[in-house]
Amino acid sequence: MLPIDEALRRLHEFNAGTREPSNKDAELAEEREYQKLQEQEREAEELRCPSLKVIPRFFAPKNSPIDESNSLKPKVLREARTLLWQRKSNEELFDEEDLHRIVALLKEHARERQNDIGSPHGFSPVKSNEVIDYAGFTIMREELVLKGARFRQLFTASTFLKIWQLSRPRDKSGCIPIAHFVAFVVRKARRVETRMQLSYYDALGRGYLREKDMENFIFELIPTLPQLNSLQEEFYPFYVFTAVRKFFFFLDPKRTGRIHMPDLLSSPHLMELYELRQEQPMEPAEAAANWFSMQSALKVYGAYLELDVDQNGMLSKTELSRYGHGMLTDVFIDRVFEEYQTYRDGETGEREMDYKTFLDFVLAMENKSSRQALQYFWKIIDIHHQGYIDGFVINYFFRAIVRMLQTKKFDVASIDDVKDEIFDMVKASKLGVISLQDLTNCRQGGVVLSMLVDAAAFWRYDNRESLMMDPEDDDIEI
Questions:
Q1: 175, 132 in Cβ contact below 8 A?
Q2: Which of 131, 221, 287, 412 could form a disulfide with 175, with the two C-beta atoms 3.0–4.6 Å apart?
Q3: 119 pLDDT exceeds 60?
Q4: CATH class of the 222-329+333-359 domain in this structure
């Protein structure tokens, strides 16, 4: 065997005078090798199954699950994707220097310079009446494309037209405000950056993230978010569970265990998470309204601990019934435990709910009018699993409301009156029955569900007129 130094010397001699391949040559070589592999795979399949020569394959069985802990394949795939995205980032990502270059050229080709205002996201000042016409727009494109092909995607005719159409008031000479274009460029840059960042966590390389992938993404994102600087490291796992459940509740309502990348990128919930990138501390009201804020996560987890009276880390039916005002009916609680994942206590044999299932419950209760929450509750109230509810089902749930309010000495409307009112509110497409689509279409689905499962919510609805006259009664202890 040759020594390594001698082997290298001979290799250098052999390649002496050979031109170093360009990036384009390397890409063409990669493509040729990939096509060879595809051709070899096709020929091997045709040998195994000759019918493939005349009948194309129309079904591909799913691959068996990969053991990612000790399998080499997922590690190789991840490394290959990392290299791919590094290359694409060089070709597509815009850095701060690029953004300043765009702003400088916009100002150079702008008209109407007066009334200074600050441009979006802290870039060079842009004046409110500065606009650019399409001729200047195309000149900019040609200048910037010389610096890199990545600029071409920004300066398209459709982009110019869309910004002009959205501008208020529209410029009669066909110009667009350069401040609006700068904002578009910043959003575009951040979207590309986010897509590349998320793709790194797509362990299978199939265009979607599983729950484990999302957990890895959130966990590694925490240190980069200024609003979470004071979050204790011991709480990280619970924060990750809390954040990830919102994404899966709203973006995976069919419980497939995956979120497709386009859905995630266009989701308002991802934008809500990225609000935590701001340096200035959030206002208390703003933090309370953001599910991903530290204050909100601690509040939800604190509520779970408070409900867990026996401190075994799980919630029983009795413990969950204390949620909110403690006025959720026993019928509703029973159905929650029948339809959603629970675990049997080894000592008592009672079914109990873990933190992740509790998070789904909280998200449904706090967003009753959303399509995803309606689907969550529909599984509970459609007791016969027949795709609709009727007067019997309404009676079944509302009788529990009546019993609970009567124990509190409140007068309650008759069941028949409430049933008629619900049918009037929903305006079902089929007489005598209500479907999930009816609940969604009527835009009163959240109110209807509250009337059937929460005695406190029904009391507030039934006394809404008097509460409007005296809002302080809304805090009445019932």
A1: yes
A2: 131
A3: no
A4: mainly alpha
